[in-house]
Amino acid sequence: MPLLDLTKITIGLSKLWAGYLRDWDRTLRSANHPENTRYNYLLAAAQLGRYLAEYSPDPDADDAAEDPCEVTKAHIEYFQAWMIDTRSASTALNKHKGLQQYFKWLRDDEEAIDHSPMDRVKQPTTQKKLIPIIRDDDTKKVLDTCKGKTFVQLRDEAIIRLYYNTGARLSEVGNLALADADMDTDSVHYHGKGNKDRRVRFGPKTARAISRYLRARAKHKGADLPDLWLAERGVRSLTPNGIKIMLKRRGLAAGLDGVHAHRWRHNFAHEWKRAGGDTGDLMLLMGWTSEDMPRHYGASAAAERAQETQLRMGIGEHV
Questions:
Q1: What order of strands is seen across the sheet that includes strand 197-201?
Q2: Is 269:282 a contact under the CB 8 Å cutoff?
Q3: Residue 201 pairs with which residues in a beta bridge?
Q4: For the chain, which residues make up each domain, given as ranges?
Q5: 35, 112, 129, 170 — which has fewest CB within 10 A?
Q6: Which residues, in sequence order, are bridge partners of residue 237?
Q7: Three-class SS of residue 182?
Q8: For residue range 11-39, what is the model confidence (pLDDT) as tens digits?
Q9: In terms of C-beta density within 10 A (0-12 exposed, 13-18 middle, 19 or more buried), how is residue 17 classed?
Q10: Which residues pair with 191 in a beta bridge?
Q11: 3-state class of 82 per DSSP?
Q12: Under a CB-based contact definition with an 8 Å cutoff, are residues 42 and 4 in contact?
């Protein structure tokens, strides 16, 4: 089932708002934006439209709720503050970025407005949270919950080892097709953000886990489906959201809270840097184009690496 359903996204919006969003989606599709990006952009604009109709304290918001061309800087600021209060600053920041693109499109492509109301709206500031890495002994505890020969045990071990071994995003492993796994070269073809594809190798333990799963998959219902991961029951695939739920459940069974795919992504970056790996090579493996990303993903473990270096150098211990 596709993520993006315009009918659902535009529920509660005026005809003008809904019409503009449909036109914008056509522009985004023609520019080959990924479905997830389109969904986030359109959702941000739709949420602003519904906010103006239902929650805005501004007495002039009624006009803006009917026509997005009537939206002002004040409307946006009220909306951002509401998002921070009801969701979080990081969510408000994501909406800000989506709205920047929406009003830029209204101004430049549609020529429906002369100036974007976003021009002088400041981005919400967010507190950078350090995501703790998941250590080998904790990963072993999670993998121990998968011991056995049932279809689900074999599937879950293969999935967890792939995250652990390659540091991939939740969606990249979750959206793998059967054809993306090459057991001759022990590699997978990931379809990353912004249509950036890359091929990544995996190690012997991961290869063994995937091979065992593939043998079980061949006998499972839905074996003819193109998706790599299959659900336990029925002829259907296991979605990224299903994997997210599975990882949380496996973590709790292992006595661990907060187990999710991105922790292994942080762990991969940490171990790479700890071993003296090249930052450029890490960017290629992780599918990053900005040099800010290695710093962000290494932040949670940088202090630990610094302490290890301090002990190794022995400063202040020579006399």
A1: 181-182, 187-191, 197-201
A2: yes
A3: 187
A4: 6-108, 136-310
A5: 129
A6: 230
A7: strand
A8: 999 999 999 999 999 999 999 988 888 99
A9: buried
A10: 197
A11: helix
A12: yes
